[in-house]
Specification:
A: mainly alpha; elongated; B: mainly alpha; MetI-like fold; membrane (chain A)
């Protein structure tokens, strides 16, 4: 059986609600990318801190900017940051973890294990701060820092998994029938790792979106852009004066997106690991 | 690995690993905060310096040397805790840290500890009766907690308890006795408890579920021992290694993100505030000290735990 079929079958039975919610978020982000909405997030209108109205559905902030526009544009930003970090960190982790696992016990494995251990021993927010410090205002510093610190988890798992796969009969059979290393990696090892990588990518996506909020709140996140984190940072100043729309809009969006992805990746993990017994309550987690 | 289970070999093996990790984290701290950090040469020079003046200052500061001698110099200074002076205040960095760290400990310790004890208790009850009321509640609490950010929790709690209800001070850290301490520490602690509960509940519950199926626990249950005795003497004890490791790994993340977020938001002069100020103003000696010292401390803590679990459990030692 080839991998795409099993993967598709594993994806088929996922819960409908989180899938539907994800579709809404994706549509919101896609609309921004196509220029349908969310393009006026920085336009300043005359009325400051206006309550919701037909013109501004969620009202305006302290500069008179439309909160709904900012929320939509922030959704696109969340997907941009999340997807970039998820794809890059999982790809890096898979490549380096696979390399280490394939050459387990040799010098390259020792070196990579050391690098992984070292990065994991540096507290994440200080690592990001240090990279932002070293890069001094380069706009990609936050994403780079996330990729450089998130790949290690994938690498650890892929290393263990490829060490285990290396010993399996079907790899020996492929080798005996004259397959090259490249073919074994692409046709036999990678398909077996695909579900694991998908789960890791969803975890990295969530971690990136959540870290963006913290980093933008601290002022070392995105610059000259709009994101949920920037909205929340802005709102933290307004909330003492009793203006909640900005805060509630961005927080709720983050909460629902993260909840949906968490529940999707849980569903996926249950399908991957037969040891996890599926109980009705556990599906909520 | 090569030690073959002998105690001396095991110790040597772990010592080598710990040393390699220490070199790794200091190398990264040095590269990011010193090598790529702002060049101190320019701060010592006047306007329009001549090339000779630049060269002179670079030599005096040791900036003209190669990467490795400068790194070695950095290691020596770090080992002697000779961390230089903060650019902003001119105060020795060691004094700055010595003043800020106790504030952060007082601020974070209650929330962190109460959060863990609460999560352990709830997870134990949940694991004991799967699909019972507490288990369902824990599932909802952990799904919610994992989807919120500490930033959101802290802002919301401040809005409710300090602004709307007006029970606690909204900002600051004017602590002089126990009552004022409790007033200032309550809202941040609540934030830490809520933020940690999501991930901790889920992890502890799954560890307890596994342990409850272990033969010693099943035997104890079959003997008819009381629930409390089984929970503490058998389940908690068997589950201790993964839980302790987990707590240790969580410490830097919770303590550092917690102190950065909470101290910045509430304006509390702890280590997070010191770090945040250094980050914003580009205060290189302070950044270097915070990044390298916390990484070094974390490696030391990890190595000690690793060593202890290894010495206590022969299975780990052989692996």
């Amino acid at each position: 059986m080839t991998a795409p079929v099993t993967l598709r079958r594993r994806l088929a039975g996922l819960d409908r609600l989180p899938v539907a919610l994800m579709a809404v978020f994706l549509a919101a982000a896609a609309g921004v990318w196509c220029g349908l909405w969310g393009t006026d997030w920085s336009t300043i209108s005359g009325t400051l801190r206006e309550p919701p109205s037909p013109e501004h559905w969620l009202g305006t902030n302290r500069l008179g900017q439309d909160i709904l526009e900012r929320l939509l544009a922030g959704t696109a930003t969340a997907f941009e940051v999340g997807l970039l970090v998820a794809v890059a960190s999982v790809a890096l982790g898979a490549a380096l973890g696979g390399l280490a696992g394939f050459h387990a016990g040799r010098r390259i494995d020792t070196l990579l294990t050391w690098v992984i251990g070292t990065i994991d021993a540096i507290p994440f927010y200080l690592f990001v701060a240090a990279i932002a410090f070293a890069m001094r205002g380069w706009p990609g510093a936050m994403q780079l820092a996330m990729i450089l610190s998130f790949w290690t988890l994938t690498a650890r798992l892929v290393r263990t998994e490829s060490m285990r796969l290396r010993e399996r009969e079907f790899i020996a059979a492929a080798r005996a029938s004259g397959s090259t290393n490249r073919r074994i990696l692409l046709r036999h090892i990678l398909p077996n790792l695909a579900p694991l990588l998908l789960v890791q990518a969803s975890l990295a996506f969530v971690a990136a979106v959540k870290a963006e909020v913290v980093l933008s709140f601290l002022g070392i996140g995105l610059q000259d852009s709009i994101s949920w984190g920037i909205m929340i940072a802005e709102a933290s100043q307004e909330i003492l004066a009793g203006h909640f729309t900005n805060f509630i809009a961005a927080s709720l969006a983050l909460f629902v997106l993260v909840l949906s992805i968490n529940s999707l990746s849980d569903g996926l993990q249950e399908r991957l690991d037969p040891r996890v017994r599926r109980t009705p309550t556990e599906r909520l987690a | 690995m090569s030690a073959g289970g002998s105690r001396g070999g095991f110790l040597l093996d772990r010592l080598v690993t710990a040393t390699a990790l220490l070199l790794g984290v200091t190398l990264i701290s040095f590269t990011l905060t010193v090598h790529f950090g702002p060049d101190p040469t320019w701060e010592q020079l006047g306007r329009n310096p001549t090339p000779e003046q630049i060269e002179q200052v670079r030599q005096a500061l040791g900036q003209d040397r190669g990467f490795l001698p400068r790194y070695a110099d950095f290691l020596l200074r770090l080992a002697r805790l000779d961390l230089g002076h903060a650019l902003a205040s001119g105060e020795p960095v060691v004094d700055l840290l010595a003043r800020a760290i106790p504030v952060s400990l007082l601020l974070l310790a209650p929330g962190f500890l109460i959060g863990i004890v609460l999560a352990l208790a709830l997870a134990m009850v949940a694991a004991w009766r799967p699909r019972g009321f507490v288990d369902r509640l824990c599932t909802i609490v952990s799904a919610t907690g994992m989807s919120l950010s500490l930033v959101i929790i802290v802002i919301a709690l401040q809005a409710v308890f300090a602004v709307w209800l007006d029970w606690f001070p909204a900002r600051g850290w004017r602590v002089h006795d126990l009552a004022s301490y409790l007033r200032h520490v309550t809202v941040p602690s609540l934030g830490l408890i809520v933020a940690g509960l999501g991930y901790n509940l889920r992890f502890f519950r799954s560890v307890f579920r596994n342990v409850l199926h272990d033969p010693p626990v099943r035997t104890a249950r079959a003997y008819g021992f009381g629930d409390g005795r089984i929970a503490i003497r058998y389940v908690l004890r068997a589950a201790a290694p993964p839980i302790l490791t987990r707590i240790l790994v969580a410490v830097p993340l919770i303590v550092i993100s917690g102190s950065l977020i909470i101290e910045k938001h509430f304006g509390i002069p702890g280590i997070g505030m010191v770090t945040w100020n250094a980050m914003m103003s580009g205060d290189q000696p302070v950044m270097m000290a915070v990044v390298s010292l916390s990484s070094v401390l974390f490696v030391l803590a990890l190595s000690v735990t690793d060593l202890l679990t290894g010495l206590l459990d022969p299975k780990v030692r052989g692996a």
